[in-house]
Each structure stands twice: as structure tokens, then as C-alpha cells.
Write a structure and sequence with these properties.
Length: 307
């Protein structure tokens, strides 16, 4: 139904394949950034779900230069999958949390190979300004460029509970400025943050209203060495079952416009650190169940858009 596939949602990987006439592989990068919610600038302790790795799951680390991480990734993916095109993905921590001249050097070093066609920069909405967005906007003139903002939810009471250190209004201001620079925006959302179904759907409806370019959906989970893990072990919190998550994801997708690309629907790479819920370690199984549920409903992304 989307991108010449049988998927009932606008899968980002298929979208990229159509755009570039080849599968595009993301190379995840650690450029040695920090986070203002961990270094004491905003608050102490960081988000309750952050395990200190900055959401970084790649095997190598910032002991390698960004350029070497790119070249190593291209070499590995080319040999293993005969990959031809790549996107540099600054994933670890807050990847705009440095002075703009330093950011320019870091970003340009990721564009060191002719087969890198795009760049994606993960960050917080409170860590961008006009100068930084202008820099990234200039890159977008020559490369397919994304900023990925950790939104999580539109509800400030929940953001406070997870110690996010920012509010929804900060996201809205950053989103407006980012779009003015012509940069694609992917909003990260977490389901299972002890919100009602209506509250989670309100986040979907707001993203639909904004016509955000992309969405990455995560399931809340407890990893080792996090405050959330301690809360779970103390019996203070619980998590969605797989069935609840699948139903909620499908409901969420139905509100999003068909143009919004879906960058993730299920987690992976967490088995060593994962405490709960254990079912999210089976990514392909979860994705298949989401496909089956949309088929059972005879539904699809955008089925309820505008309702």
C-alpha cells in the first residue's frame, strides 16, 4: 500500500529505497556529545529511562573519529550486504550540544564519502538555536537531512514525571524554526508512559496536525542502571503488554497522515541491558503482529487522519 510494498504504513526504509533507487543503510555515530539533562545544566540524573549510553547501540564508540566510524561502517555494510548508499546517523546523546563551529566540523566529517547521501541528527528541542539550524539547513541543500527530536509525549505532566527537563512548548518552537530552514523533522514518541489511551492518541493527533515528516515510536522499557529499573524493581511502575502495545501502535498510526514516514515501531538491540518488558526483544515478531493487526482491521496509516 505504501512505497510499492504491502506495508499498511509509510515505512521509512522503503521510502528511502524508492527515493534513492537503492536500500539506504544508516551508520550510527558517536561523536562524543553529552546531554544537558545529564551534566547538570538542566537537572540531575537525566531522563528516568536513559541508561547512560545516550541511546547508542553500535558496536564501536567515539574512540574512533567520526570519519573512521563512517568508513568502517561503509566497509562492513558493503561487504556484508553489498550496500551502495548510506546515511550518517548521529545517535548518541544530544548531537547539537556543542558550539556551532565545532558542529560544522563534526557534521562535515561524516560526509566524507561519495556514497553518503544523507545525514540524521538526534537531539533535544532545547539544544538548537537559529545559528545551529542555519548550519544544518545549509547541509540540507546538498544532502538528505533530518533532525530527530526527542518529543516522547505532548503532555507536560508526563514530561515532568520522566524528568525530561523540557516542555512541549519547547518542541513546538524548535519544530517551527526547523521547518523554516527546510529540514525534515522526525519526532520520537514513547508509548506506555502511564498515560490513558486518549492521552496517547492526543499526541498522535497533534503530530498529524503539525504534519510532522517522520515519527519514531518506542515502547517504554527499563534498562539496567536506570532510575526506571529501580522503580520497576520496587513495584512502583508496570509496562504495557505486547498486545496492548500492538493495539495502541495501530491506533496511533491511523491518525497520522500518509506522508509521515515511520522510522521505527519496535525496539531492538536491548537484550543485554533489558530488564522489562522482555517481549520487546523480539522486534521482528512484534512488527509482524502489527502488520497482522492492521490487516485484520482492514486499516492503514491515515485511516483516521483529520477525524
Amino acid at each position: 500500500m505504501f512505497n510499492n510494498t504491502d506495508k499498511r504504513y509509510n515505512q521509512f526504509s522503503a521510502f528511502l529505497k524508492n527515493k534513492f533507487n537503492a536500500k539506504v543503510y544508516k551508520i550510527t555515530l558517536d561523536a562524543g556529545f553529552s546531554c544537558p539533562n545529564r551534566d547538570g545544566t538542566i537537572s540531575t540524573g537525566g531522563c528516568i529511562f536513559c541508561d547512560g549510553s545516550g541511546s547508542f547501540s553500535q558496536a564501536h564508540s567515539n574512540k574512533l573519529s567520526v570519519e573512521n566510524q563512517i568508513l568502517t561502517g561503509i566497509d562492513t555494510l558493503s561487504k556484508r550486504f553489498k550496500a551502495e548508499k548510506f546515511m550518517a546517523y548521529f545517535q548518541a546523546y544530544t548531537n547539537t550540544y556543542k558550539p556551532v563551529d565545532e558542529l560544522e566540523r563534526i557534521y562535515q566529517s561524516a560526509l566524507c564519502h561519495k556514497d553518503v547521501v544523507g545525514i540524521s541528527i538526534g537531539t533535544r528541542p532545547d539544544c538548537v538555536d537559529d545559528e545551529k539550524l542555519k548550519l544544518i539547513g545549509n547541509i540540507s541543500k546538498d544532502y538528505y537531512t533530518w533532525i530527530e527530536y526527542g518529543l516522547q509525549t505532548i503532555h507536560n505532566k508526563t514530561l515532568k514525571k520522566i524528568n525530561r527537563g523540557e516542555d512541549f512548548e519547547t518542541f513546538l518552537r524548535a519544530y517551527e524554526k526547523t521547518k523554516k530552514e527546510g529540514i525534515n523533522v522526525c519526532a520520537h514518541v514513547i508509548l506506555g508512559l502511564w498515560e490513558t489511551h486518549d492521552e496517547m492518541m492526543a499526541t498522535a493527533q497533534k503530530l498529524a496536525e503539525l504534519k510532522v515528516d517522520g515519527v519514531k515510536i518506542h515502547m517504554l522499557c527499563a534498562l539496567e542502571n536506570t532510575k526506571l529499573a529501580k522503580m520497576y524493581e520496587a513495584g512502583e511502575v508496570d509496562f504495557m503488554s505486547e498486545e496492548e502495545y500492538i493495539q495502541t501502535v495501530c491506533d496511533f498510526l491511523e491518525y497520522l497522515p500518509k506522508e509521515t514516514t515511520i522510522h521505527r515501531l519496535a525496539g531492538n538491540g536491548l537484550k543485554k541491558e533489558l530488564i522489562a518488558p522482555r517481549w520487546i526483544g523480539k522486534k521482528l515478531d512484534c512488527l509482524n503482529k502489527i502488520d497482522k493487526e492492521l490487516l485484520r482491521r482492514n486499516s492503514f496509516q491515515s485511516a483516521k487522519f483529520g477525524l
